[in-house]
């Protein structure tokens, strides 16, 4: 506890960097996965291709992806945090494309037909009916992606990008158990915060579920 009390400022600074490296890719990945998931749902022949390709992206080892980023994106260096953001966005897209497609597929056909009969077509139907009803499924996938991002970002400490993973590597190198424990606890707390924010967003975007719960 003494080490933690003496290093609150450092832990907070690393946590703030960790939030940026894990949180920004969540938003970017969702924005990219939405049209891809819609396309996979819209065209049946595209579905297996998009799902397979996006799934394969998640099999790329994180450390290798971080190191290869300067080759993929000329002008950047290994230590550029932007490389971690892009790599984590790739992982987020890999997790969310199937989730978005399945979420849109969970909307009952009867609901879509009713919306069409009421004049909802194209983007209006997507944003007004399909996407809101798919929110619970998409939020479930986003929660998985959030926890995964918080965990994987820690690996970036091995290439020198500062975040909470630094507490793990530095604590291991210097045999400081309290530092390692602080890193683990901070990552868990951060994952719980991400999860809570997503749950709150889901609750705000699906008021009908609260109404159904109240009547139950």
Describe this entry's structure for a reader.
82% of the residues lie in helices and 0% in strands. The protein has 216 residues and is mostly helical. Helix 2 crosses helix 5, helix 5 crosses helix 7 and helix 7 runs antiparallel to helix 9. The mean pLDDT is 89.
Given helix and strand content, the structural type is: mainly alpha
Distance between the termini: 46 Å
> Can you count the beta strands?
0
User: Which percent range describes the beta-strand content?
Assistant: under 5%
Share of helix, binned: over 70%
Shape: globular
Let me know the average pLDDT.
89
Q: What is the number of helices? A: 10
Query: Residue ranges: pLDDT <50 for 5 or more in a row?
Result: none
Rg value:
20 Å
Largest sheet: none
Sequence of secondary-structure elements: HHHHHHHHHH
């Amino acid at each position: 506890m003494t080490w933690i009390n003496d290093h609150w400022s450092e832990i907070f600074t690393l946590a703030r960097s960790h939030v940026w490296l894990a949180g920004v890719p969540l938003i970017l990945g969702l924005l990219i996965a939405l049209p891809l998931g819609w396309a996979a749902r819209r065209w049946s022949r595209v579905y297996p291709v998009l799902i397979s390709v996006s799934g394969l992206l998640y099999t790329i080892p994180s450390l290798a992806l971080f190191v290869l980023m300067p080759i993929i994106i000329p002008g950047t260096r290994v230590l550029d945090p932007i490389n971690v953001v892009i790599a984590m966005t790739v992982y987020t897209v890999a997790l969310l494309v199937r989730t978005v497609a399945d979420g849109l597929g969970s909307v009952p056909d009867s609901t879509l037909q009713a919306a069409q009969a009421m004049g909802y077509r194209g983007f209006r139907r997507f944003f007004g009916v399909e996407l809101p009803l798919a929110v619970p499924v998409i939020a479930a996938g986003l929660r998985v992606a959030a926890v995964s991002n918080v965990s994987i970002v820690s690996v970036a400490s091995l290439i020198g990008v500062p975040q909470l993973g630094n507490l793990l590597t530095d604590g291991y190198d210097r045999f400081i158990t309290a530092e390692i424990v602080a890193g683990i606890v901070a990552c868990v707390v951060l994952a719980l915060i991400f999860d809570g924010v997503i749950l709150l967003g889901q609750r705000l975007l699906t008021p009908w579920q609260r109404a159904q719960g109240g009547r139950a």
